[in-house]
Write a structure and sequence with these properties.
Layout (H helix, E strand, L loop, with lengths): L1 E2 L5 H13 L2 H8 L3 H8 L4 H15 L2 E6 L3 H15 L2 E6 L2 H13 L7 E5 L4 H5 L3 E2 L18 E14 L24 E4 L3 H14 L4 H12 L3 E3 L2 H9 L5 E6 H9 L4 E2 L7 E11 L5 H11 L2 H8 L3 E2 L13 E3 L2 H20 L1
Parallel strand pairs: 1-3, 2-3, 2-4, 7-8, 7-9, 11-13
Antiparallel strand pairs: 4-11, 5-11, 6-9, 6-10, 6-11, 6-12
Helix pairs in contact: 4-12, 8-14
């Protein structure tokens, strides 16, 4: 996928305008079409006819679009190639961390030169963009195929990182593996367990579960975490921490990512996370259309593709996706996406809390 890093956004906007202008009369009509107009036009069509119509409209718009994203390079490359093959549309991308993507969108909007058509980042990072009035509502028949909690008015979750305890099967017998989140506080894991130092939303999610589902008091939750970290080590990075687990430095990794464990298993590593602890906590990645998009039909086409055929591409890359028929676990399991609205309000305080716990 072509990267826009180092390219002035205003030049991208000029390219889009020139491409649209070259489309003649139909291109001029497409230029004035909004996302709402597109959704109204294709809303009642069967999915195959909807895609065909969107591809036709995308061709009139210039058959290219720009995504501002945090997704890793492998996703960008594979998604770009597959989407272009399926639809004929070229993807341009600006890739950075979530804060930089959000800041760029807000600053470009304020300067009147926002060039992104779609943004694809963690859903909590989309809240300021939504609150600035920059996101377009989006609906699709493909949303019915996704797990509960994937859909909101302005964005749709397409994949996620799912937190799971993982254990070294050479060191942990099947009947010793944890079966509940409460088991992490068992002294049996003293000097055998590691935690990841930046899993702030996981810490918050487990704490909320203890309080809201199990009725634990604040004092009981504080004691739980004191027991969890007693004798445990904190390390940075899920991949590097998993390697320590595989090497036998630790027997249990409290908050690994399930897709990483699966990749390790595929390579023959002695790691496991199944059967999973419930509830399953997941930090989501979502996509949304900017309401200033110069390519609204192309943007709707990409969003539709990302939650239909694009799910197969992401799954082949070992990412957990939201399409029900591609889940890596029982569809009846209690999967909980981290609540973007609540997390956005408490993030700074929770980071301070967990960082203090890690330093204790």
């Amino acid at each position: 996928m072509q990267k826009l890093a180092g390219v002035r956004p205003v030049l991208v906007a000029m390219v889009v305008l020139l491409t649209t202008a070259c489309g003649g009369g139909e291109g001029e009509a497409a230029e004035s079409r909004s996302v709402e107009d597109v959704l109204e036009e294709v809303g009642d069509l069967p999915v195959d006819e909807r895609r065909a119509r969107l591809i036709d409209l995308a061709e009139k718009e210039g058959s290219s679009m720009t995504v501002y994203t945090t997704t890793a390079g492998d996703i960008n490359d594979e998604v770009s190639a597959a989407f272009t093959e399926d639809t004929g549309v070229q993807l341009l991308s600006y890739r950075a961390d979530a804060e930089d993507v959000r800041t760029r969108i807000l600053q470009e909007s304020e300067a009147g030169r926002l060039t992104a058509d779609v943004t694809w980042i963690g859903d909590s990072r989309l809240i300021p963009v939504r609150d600035a009035g920059l996101l377009a509502p989006y609906t699709s028949p493909h949303q019915a195929d996704l797990v509960e909690g994937s859909v909101s008015e302005f964005w749709t979750i397409n994949h996620y990182n799912m937190y799971v305890p993982a254990w070294n099967t050479d060191a942990v017998a099947p009947d010793e593996a944890p079966t509940s989140w409460e088991d992490l506080a068992d002294p049996v894991w003293d000097n055998r367990m590691t935690l990841e130092a930046s899993d702030f939303d996981w810490y918050w999610s487990v704490s909320n579960y203890l309080a809201e589902d199990l009725g634990r008091s604040e004092e009981e939750i504080d004691q739980y975490w004191a027991d969890v970290v007693d004798g445990a080590d904190f390390n940075s990075g899920h991949t590097s921490t998993r390697q320590l687990l595989i090497a036998g430095e630790y027997d249990l990794f409290a908050s690994d990512f399930s897709n990483g464990v699966e990749a390790g298993k595929s390579d023959g590593a002695p790691v496991e996370w199944l059967p999973p602890l419930e509830p399953l906590f997941a930090t989501p990645e979502a996509a949304a259309i900017l309401n200033t998009s110069a390519n609204p039909a192309t943007s709707v086409l990409f969003m539709d593709w990302l939650i239909s055929d694009g799910q197969d591409v992401l799954r082949e890359l070992a990412y957990d996706v939201t399409r029900k028929d591609l889940l890596s676990f029982d569809a009846d399991a209690d999967l909980r996406f981290i609540d973007a609205e609540r997390w956005f309000e408490v993030e700074a305080d929770v980071i301070d809390e967990y960082s203090a716990l890690a330093a204790s």
